């Protein structure tokens, strides 16, 4: 009986120690506002039912609430003016040594052109109309046709236009050579500019970026999975695994409460390890979850939450954040 009581006491003591090491009640982290990551700037919403990687989303646009087109400088400028702290953009290499800022693997969906985006020169891509393919009524009308000519920017244009802003640069392939080319571009930027960037994509290009620029923040599905699994096993102690250091994490909002120390202790640990944290929408299986696009979800954020959130619907989410802060 005495031995059993000793074991029980040890278990209770250990559980209490784990609780104290992870409860946010004892954190001195100051309350703040979320850091807002706008996915592709201000973009047109589309019906996500039955989406595949080959779905032309411009053909299933929802009735537009604004006239901004994703991944354009005009859209980015509007997103920053509306309160975004960070922007995500997509890049493809071009035949003339540039990086085009454009989401799709081919230009067939959104423009009047055809072929893989990377098979064109930046000069030729500048001639295309990035608003050409958008329709909300099955092709009866195309409200942005003619308005997007010349609006596909290059990555160097974006960096020059927004020299002090933070970006997530999404590499759309899993090609190591593309990572090497992007690393060469990034290497020419000042170190303080590099520090404001996160490179997102497949493991191969990200490994190439890391090999050339070890301090660059990166995020891939595999690196995120490795970090979260190892933190799940070791985070109770306050230890931050190497896979979680000096990086960026995208955490589904329905997964976050299960993280050791969530929210404040977890955010403090990641911040001290040089890692940025962004909440995404609920995860339901598959790849990355969507952004937090429903204003009602904003009300479920922890009180005083000062980590990041990612959204595809900035114009809906910002008013909810403003109401929350008042």
Automatic annotation (TrEMBL):
<dbReference type="GO" id="GO:0008889">
    <property type="term" value="F:glycerophosphodiester phosphodiesterase activity"/>
</dbReference>
<dbReference type="InterPro" id="IPR030395">
    <property type="entry name" value="GP_PDE_dom"/>
</dbReference>
<dbReference type="Pfam" id="PF03009">
    <property type="entry name" value="GDPD"/>
</dbReference>
<keyword id="KW-0378">Hydrolase</keyword>
<feature type="domain" description="GP-PDE">
    <location>
        <begin position="34"/>
        <end position="321"/>
    </location>
</feature>
<protein>
    <submittedName>
        <fullName>Glycerophosphoryl diester phosphodiesterase</fullName>
        <ecNumber>3.1.4.46</ecNumber>
    </submittedName>
</protein>
<dbReference type="InterPro" id="IPR017946">
    <property type="entry name" value="PLC-like_Pdiesterase_TIM-brl"/>
</dbReference>
């Amino acid at each position: 009986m005495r031995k059993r009581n000793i074991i029980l006491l040890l278990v209770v003591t250990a559980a209490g120690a784990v609780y104290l090491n992870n409860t946010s009640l004892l954190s001195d982290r100051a309350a703040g506002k979320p850091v807002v990551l706008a996915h592709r700037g201000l973009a047109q919403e589309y019906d996500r039912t039955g989406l595949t990687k080959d779905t032309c989303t411009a053909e299933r646009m929802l009735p537009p609430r604004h006239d901004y087109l994703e991944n354009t400088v005009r859209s980015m400028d509007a997103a920053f003016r509306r309160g975004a702290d960070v922007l995500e953009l997509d890049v493809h290499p071009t035949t003339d040594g540039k990086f085009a800022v454009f989401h799709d693997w081919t230009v067939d969906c959104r423009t009047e052109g055809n072929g893989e985006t990377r098979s064109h020169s930046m000069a030729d891509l500048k001639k295309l109309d990035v608003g050409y393919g958008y329709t909300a009524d099955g092709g009866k009308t195309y409200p942005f046709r003619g308005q997007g000519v010349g609006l596909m920017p290059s990555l160097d244009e974006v960096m020059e236009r927004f020299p002090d802003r933070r970006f997530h640069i999404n590499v759309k392939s899993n090609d190591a050579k593309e990572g090497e080319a992007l690393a060469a571009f990034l290497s020419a930027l000042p170190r303080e500019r590099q520090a404001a960037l996160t490179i997102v994509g497949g493991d191969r290009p990200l490994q190439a970026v890391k090999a050339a620029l070890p301090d660059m923040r990166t995020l891939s599905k595999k690196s995120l999975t490795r970090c979260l699994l190892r933190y799940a096993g070791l985070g109770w102690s306050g230890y931050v695994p190497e896979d979680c250091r000096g990086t960026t994490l995208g955490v589904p909002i329905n997964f976050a409460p299960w993280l050791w120390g969530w929210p404040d202790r977890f955010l403090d640990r990641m911040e001290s390890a040089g890692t940025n944290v962004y909440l995404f929408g609920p995860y339901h299986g598959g790849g990355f979850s969507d952004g937090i696009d429903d204003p009602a979800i904003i009300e479920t954020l922890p009180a005083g939450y000062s980590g990041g959130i990612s959204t595809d619907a900035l114009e809906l989410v910002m008013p909810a954040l403003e109401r929350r802060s008042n």
